[in-house]
Fold these 4 entries.
Entry 1:
Amino acid sequence: MKTHDIDAAVRGLALTRTEDRITDAAWTQVAENVTSEHAPAVSLEPRRRPARPRLLLAAAASLLIVGVVAATLVNRPGQNQPQALSFTEQGDKLIVRIVDPTADPKRYNAEFEKMGLDITVKTIAVSPPMVGMIAGITGRTESDFKPLHRLAPGEKCNGTLNAADPGCQEGLELPKNYDGEALIEFGREAKPGEMYLHTSGSATAKGEMLAGLVIHNKPVAQVLPQIAARGVKVVSYLSGNAPDLDSSQTAPGNWYVHGAMSHAPGEVILFVGAKPEK
């Protein structure tokens, strides 16, 4: 609030009766006190009836001060909506990192749009290790896709930040003048029964359902109980050397497991064969 606005507001309280008028010196002192951080007690010099004008002016000063403080607290932009993405310039490049991996895709898209970038984010169901990570980047054309570079956690971070810092997770590097169109697929937790659209290379990889389980070239009959002990179900069998094997059938117990792939929460697909894999 400007000083001349406060002066006008205070003068608006002036009484119309000539016998209740306040001296010019009193008006000046009140205006100065309203804009001061520590306003002293107001001492007025009324010509007549001193008590009532003093009370009115003191109340006016208090209301004006409260109004200024309230406006400062309420009108703070973004007070309840932190950024979902961070944008950092490095030379002629722009570094984009995910600040809030749980944000609604609309927030990501809005922040890209605010930066003048035609980049859209959509979420897809992924296996546990991929949740909160970029699952894929595609461009409308090769010229749209080629300038985009995916950054691993810890890559091109400022100062002392490293891959363990939330502000230095994986991101995207692109030219500051990027004028292409791209789509980013961002991993989210799958719903029960929902098929994963992106997984690790193997269901035994770190963070996957069968993490650490040794199954390669082990007999099917030996592997199935170990998988069941993890609370995981085999929903399909695939075989390269037995194309006539129906995926819904159970593979012979004396066949060998070549690998496993996460399919959905609590479900995997086994790759099997009649002989051990070389």
Note: Confidence is low (pLDDT under 50) at residues 1-21, 34-80.
Entry 2:
Amino acid sequence: MEAPLYPDPPCDPSTPADGQTAFWVGPRHLAGDDGRLYDVVADTLGGLGWTSLTIVRGRQEPDEADEDRQVLRSTVLHISPDALRWAQWSLADEPVSLGDLPIAWQISAREDASSPIATWSAYFTPEVPGEAVADFLVTLDARNQPAEPLVAPELVLNAVSRHNWFRDIDRPHMGAADPTFASHISLGEVPSLIQDGDPRALTEGVDDAGQAGWQAWAEPVLGAPCFWVASFGASVPHDLVAAFAASLSSTAPVLRRVLPAATKERLVRVPAS
């Protein structure tokens, strides 16, 4: 059973005591990332025992001071203990876009550690609620075979339907939206940049069984830029997407100090103290 909308606030030692007012807010899918998408996910991975590495590529001229070096790209890579799954945070000095938004987290998995190629990847932009990405990773970490496919798309739709999202009237087995139609999840053609280890994903159409991938996005104002986007390759197991979808659509409130301008007026909020 989920928490009511206005619970007694739990102690949150990870929250900075900076005097900023904290709120319990909902709905979660419009609550943003609180400016802490990296911290929330990295803390989750640290708790799971994943190792983190910082990778910096840049250019430095002879006799140039370290602080003057030109950084071309910085990433933080988190690797699971069995090296079969990893999560990469890419900083904004060389962004790759998804739905006109920069990708923040790329999460991947492979069948065995001897292969350098990911079997599948999933991508998340800023403002995706960190709780949903964290729940996706916890489920991934618990999987014995992270790249073993599970073709059960109903898991994803059932996850959001339990939280009163409506199925697409024209494609009830392939999509759903929240009651205000601000956020959506759909099984369909993946963007061209999405990496997938199944070669059929490069040659077969979206109507071929098993080759469509899940896409989720928030568009609070019809026709306006997306608030956030998440994209899953065709080979991402559906139980992992279902874990993300269940968390994203959850009616349990989340603690926020930074209320996003794009959705602030749509949020129900109560001071946490």
Note: The radius of gyration is 19 Å.
Entry 3:
Amino acid sequence: MKKYIFILIAASLGLASCSPFQVRSDYAQTANFTTYKTYKLRIDDLKINDIDKDRVLNELSKQLQAKGLQSGDNPDLIINVKANHKKITDITTSNPGMGMWGWGGPFAWGMGMNRTWTSNYNEGAVIVDMVDARTQKLVWQGIGSGISVDRPKAKQKQIPQIMAEIMANYPPGMKK
């Protein structure tokens, strides 16, 4: 019995730790990430409101500093930060159709009606491009999507979370 309770608890914890975000990254295999010590943020393409912009930049700076990078005027890396969003339409259909209940035993035929619901919402994404300042070539890119743009309270929590998840992949090849 204890074994089954342990499995149930482990499965519950595993599901609870799943991220609601889709995060991915890519990098130039020829880049030597140990040589990058300084960075400068470029936010020309960060077209979001000032509140969310502060959230993104504060968390990104915090994550970069935790990785040993410092802001500087003559940087090794230029970091371009972009954001966008897209309208998502979710369609949910229920089909009670035939069931295992009703009159006539366990395999009775039943009638049901399909019901369909739709919901529309905006989903946001953040893109972090790291460009080698000397060669002007992209050396690392991190992308995270799944931010609830239409829910201010959710964004307040989600933006720092997604930035941390994006930056968990930098520098590449490091064990988490």
Note: Strands lie at 22-27, 38-42, 70-71, 77-94, 115-132, 138-148.
Entry 4:
Amino acid sequence: MIEIPSDLHKDVVPLAFLLGTWEGAGVFAPLDDTRPGYDKCNFGQEVVFRHDGRAFLEYRSRTWVLDEAGNKVRPLENESGFWRITSNAGGAAGVRGIEVAMVRDEGVIEIWYGELADGKPQIELATDAVARSRTAAPYSGGKRLYGLVGGELMWVGEKAAPEIPLRPYMSAQLKKVLNPAKLLEDIADLPDDGIAFFR
């Protein structure tokens, strides 16, 4: 069940399924295997979507390399940005446009546009503009697909560089982190011994 906070701006209600903190793991496959420290690996991820009542969601993602035992080895990539609903994508009935402004720690700023699928929690995005700092790795654009599947947030990213065609580079499966305060609120009506719950 998707909860819609009472103070969520009406324009971003269709994105309510993203709200919260998500954690999980995925697979990273770099475009350029000549960059030191950027080998194919498993990674851990924390994603946070939150709102402050205005017409956008704030987004933050942190990833880190995992060893074979699942322990954190070192940071991998971080990014943050803002997600908005735009008018109907291309004027199509029932299709909502999505606009994302994002900055990544490797020196990349991106503008993404895409669509929220009609009737299901799925978003498809593609870069519209990319700006790189002088120290950033070659990169010319990307695509991403996000979806809520069985209560888990799944996503896959594709990336391209001037000499490399668009190809998958990251994907992850994330579970929502429960807020302990909300859990306490939900059990407030339980009897002290808990036995009545099973009667």
Note: The helical segments are 180-186.
